[in-house]
Specification:
197 residues, alpha+beta, Cytochrome p450, two-stranded antiparallel ribbon, 8 strands, elongated, monooxygenase, iron ion binding
C-alpha cells in the first residue's frame, strides 16, 4: 500500500483492473484472483524492493565447490542477500524505482525461486514452503482494499513525501506505520444494498 500510494498511476491501474474483473459483483473473492495480472505485478515489484526476509536462511554446502573463481570449502555457511539482489542494477533497469510494469513484460519472472535475480521466498529446492499460502493472503486483501476504497494520505501529506525508511532485523518492516484515509466507493455498490468489506 505504501508503494502504490506514492504512485497514483499504479494505484489507478491496480484499482481499474480489480474493479473491471469483479465488476458489479459487490465483493472480491478468490474465484477471479488468477485474472489480476497487474495486481500480481504490483506485489512482485513490492517483494523485489522489500523482501520480507532480506537475508535468506543460511545454508551450508556439503562439498567444496568453485563459484566465479572463488573456492568455497565444504561446510561453509552461505547467506544470500535477497534485498541486495532485488536492487542490483545488473539485473534490473532503474533498480531503485517502483515499476510494476517490469513484470508485465517479463511475466515469466516469478517469485517461485527459479529466477535467481528475484528470490523473495528463496530459491531452488529449498524455497519457503509457505509461498502457496502467502500469495493469496497478499492478493486477496489488497484486491479487497482496492475494490472497495479510494485512498489518500492524511493532513495534506503529498504522495512523494511519504517516508519509506525501513527497519532491518530478521524481517523487514517500515520504520513508521502507514496511515491512510479510506474513502468508500459508493458507485460500486449501487446495485447492492450492503457494502461488503
Amino acid at each position: 500500500m505504501a508503494e502504490i500510494i506514492k504512485k497514483p498511476k499504479v494505484m489507478e491501474g491496480a484499482q481499474s483492473e480489480v474493479r473491471s474483473v469483479y465488476g458489479n459483483k459487490g465483493y472480491v473473492d478468490e474465484s477471479e484472483l488468477h485474472q489480476l495480472t497487474y495486481l500480481k505485478c504490483v506485489i512482485n515489484e513490492t517483494l523485489r524492493l522489500h523482501p520480507p526476509v532480506p537475508l535468506l536462511i543460511q545454508r551450508e554446502n556439503k562439498e567444496p565447490c568453485q563459484i566465479k573463481g572463488y573456492q568455497i570449502p565444504a561446510n561453509s555457511r552461505i547467506i544470500i542477500n535477497a534485498w541486495a539482489i532485488g536492487r542490483d542494477p545488473r539485473y534490473w533497469v532503474d533498480a531503485m524505482d517502483f515499476k510494476p510494469e517490469r513484470f508485465v513484460d517479463d511475466y515469466l519472472i516469478d517469485n517461485r525461486g527459479t529466477n535467481f535475480e528475484f528470490i523473495p521466498f528463496g530459491g531452488g529446492r529449498r524455497m519457503c514452503p509457505g509461498i502457496a499460502f502467502a500469495s493469496p493472503n497478499m492478493e486477496l486483501p489488497l484486491a479487497q482494499f482496492l475494490y472497495h476504497f479510494d485512498w489518500k494520505l492524511p493532513d495534506g501529506i503529498k504522495n512523494d513525501e511519504l517516508d519509506m525508511t525501513e527497519l532491518f532485523g530478521i524481517t523487514t518492516r517500515r520504520r513508521n506505520h502507514l496511515c491512510l484515509i479510506p474513502i468508500i466507493v459508493k458507485d460500486m455498490h449501487k446495485d447492492n444494498n450492503v457494502i461488503s468489506s
